[in-house]
């Protein structure tokens, strides 16, 4: 008779360096994230996400020294998070001014210095991401996390941007034609955004994950389901895995539509999770 062992075998963690408890905690479908104040960067860019939030995703989807990509880098929060968590990073940003802020943030003294990792900031159009990777001889990445422009909303969102405008700060990214935040036609925006993620698919290692932080938007009296259309448009190639909802409990409520009609105060964002599973794609093509 074969003797049964009651001792549990330690399992190999294929994805990250978290404990079982930390792993399970992160898989909850919503979270509240109140980042520490960092007025400096918030002032310089109209739509940056907190590096502390990005760091949590990076620590779930990678191990130390792996490569993280952000094709809409802005002021570099993703690379700051990568540096802090000892991951290598590549970021692409269309405006040289924001790329310069990213470089400055990465050279700040207060940032944890991990000499073994590299954070690469590139000024370029992410529509050309495959060529950019070739030109700079960049390695394939393990994980991509990013927040694309929310369609043309920064140009339209007068109320949320009013205070910044009055202070003379940027209320939208800029006027470059290559900036996908300047595409007014909704369908065209979805299609251009998809093209960029088709490119990301090529430079990501097989079985790597992609996280996109985005939202639905309310514009001219109706809801545009940008987050849902982003998920649907990418799902032919990418395997959609989940959404995690970031609840912004500290966002001020505005008197939108008050005494007149329904206009919601949107205090959440979607973190859409996809994976590159080429075998699944080949099977789907063969089945269709
Ligand atoms: C939502 S912001 C990202 C902010 C960033 N997460 C941060 O914390 O600063 C989107 C960024 O994408 C950039 N962008 C727009 N179109 C682009 C393109 N075709 N290629 C590269 N960057 C682009 C914009 O200039 C903007 O800085």
Amino-to-carboxy terminus distance: 49 Å
Q: Under CATH, the topology is which? A: Rossmann fold
CATH architecture: 3-Layer(aba) Sandwich
* Mean pLDDT value: 89
Shape: globular
The CATH superfamily bears the name: Vaccinia Virus protein VP39
Describe the protein in words.
The protein is of the alpha/beta class and 288 residues long. The protein has one domain (37-287): Rossmann fold (3-Layer(aba) Sandwich), CATH 3.40.50. It has 11 helices and 10 strands. α5 (96-106) links the parallel β3 and β4 (119-123). α3 (51-61) packs across α4. The chain is globular and about 60 Å long. Bound molecules: S-adenosylmethionine. S-adenosylmethionine (SAM) is lined by residues 45, 47-49, 72, 74-75, 77, 92-95, 98, 125-127, 147-149, 173, 178-181.
Question: How is the topology of this model organized?
Answer:
Layout: H1 20-26, E1 30-32, H2 39-44, H3 51-61, E2 67-70, H4 77-84, E3 88-93, H5 96-106, E4 119-123, H6 129-135, E5 141-146, H7 153-156, H8 158-166, H9 186-203, E6 204-214, E7 217-219, E8 222-224, H10 226-234, E9 239-247, E10 268-275, H11 278-287
Parallel strand pairs: 1-9, 2-3, 2-5, 3-4, 5-6
Antiparallel strand pairs: 6-10, 7-8, 9-10
The structure holds S-adenosylmethionine (SAM).
């Amino acid at each position: 008779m074969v003797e049964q062992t009651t001792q549990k075998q330690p399992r190999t963690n294929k994805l990250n360096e978290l404990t079982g408890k930390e792993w399970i905690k992160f898989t909850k479908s919503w979270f509240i994230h109140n980042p520490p104040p960092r007025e400096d960067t918030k002032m310089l860019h109209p739509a940056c996400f907190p590096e502390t939030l990005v760091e949590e995703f990076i620590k779930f989807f990678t191990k130390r020294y792996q490569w993280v990509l952000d094709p809409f880098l802005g002021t570099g929060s993703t690379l700051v998070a990568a540096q802090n968590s000892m991951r290598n990073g590549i970021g692409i940003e269309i405006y040289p001014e924001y790329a310069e802020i990213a470089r400055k943030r990465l050279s700040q003294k207060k940032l944890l210095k991990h000499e073994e990792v590299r954070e690469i900031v590139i000024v370029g159009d992410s529509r050309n991401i495959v060529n950019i990777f070739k030109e700079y001889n960049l390695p394939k990445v393990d994980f991509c996390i990013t927040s694309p422009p929310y369609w043309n909303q920064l140009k339209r969102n007068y109320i949320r941007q009013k205070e910044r405008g009055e202070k003379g700060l940027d209320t939208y990214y800029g006027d470059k034609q290559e900036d996908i935040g300047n595409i007014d036609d909704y369908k065209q925006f979805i299609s251009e955004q998809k093209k960029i993620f088709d490119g990301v698919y090529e430079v990501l290692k097989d079985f790597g994950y992609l996280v996109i932080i985005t939202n639905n938007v309310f514009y001219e009296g109706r809801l545009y389901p940008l987050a849902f259309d982003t998920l649907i448009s990418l799902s032919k190639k990418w395997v959609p895995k989940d959404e995690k909802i970031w609840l912004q409990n500290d966002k001020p409520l505005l008197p939108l539509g008050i005494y007149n009609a329904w206009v919601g105060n949107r205090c959440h964002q979607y973190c859409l999770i996809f994976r590159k599973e080429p075998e699944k794609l080949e099977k789907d093509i063969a089945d269709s």
